[in-house]
Amino acid sequence: MPEQEQQGAQQAQQAQQGATLRVREQDVKTAYANMCLIFSTREEVILDFGLALPAARQQDQPPQANMVVSNRIVMGLPAAKRLAIALSQSIQRYESTFGVINLEQRPPQPPGGEA
């Protein structure tokens, strides 16, 4: 193995073994999302983040929503799996501190309201 490749492999291995990661946040852009669509290929996972907004309701039609995609993240499957594990751990910590997150699909109806 050429010396440069060997050094690169060693650096990658050190990074995976607990090396310090410095995060640069100077140019970070923040966006709010209340919806995420997930697609995948054999090699990648594609995450589309955006806002789902209710559309004007048409008579005799089921409710609809429109999603405006603001950010698309494309990840390799190993990175996507690490993200899934990190999200799961974060949610478990949150729920152990603040209680279970309710995934109710629609807001509760007021007493006497139609279901």
How is this structure best described in words?
With 115 residues, the chain is an alpha+beta fold. The protein has a domain at 31-54 and 63-100. 31% of the residues lie in helices and 25% in strands. The protein is built from two helices and three strands. It has helices spanning 3-16, 77-98, and strands at 35-40, 44-54, 65-76. The protein has a three-stranded antiparallel sheet with strand order 1-2-3. It is extended and about 60 Å long. The termini are far apart. The mean pLDDT is 82.
Summarize the structure.
By secondary structure, this protein is an alpha+beta fold. It is 31% helix and 25% strand. The protein is extended.
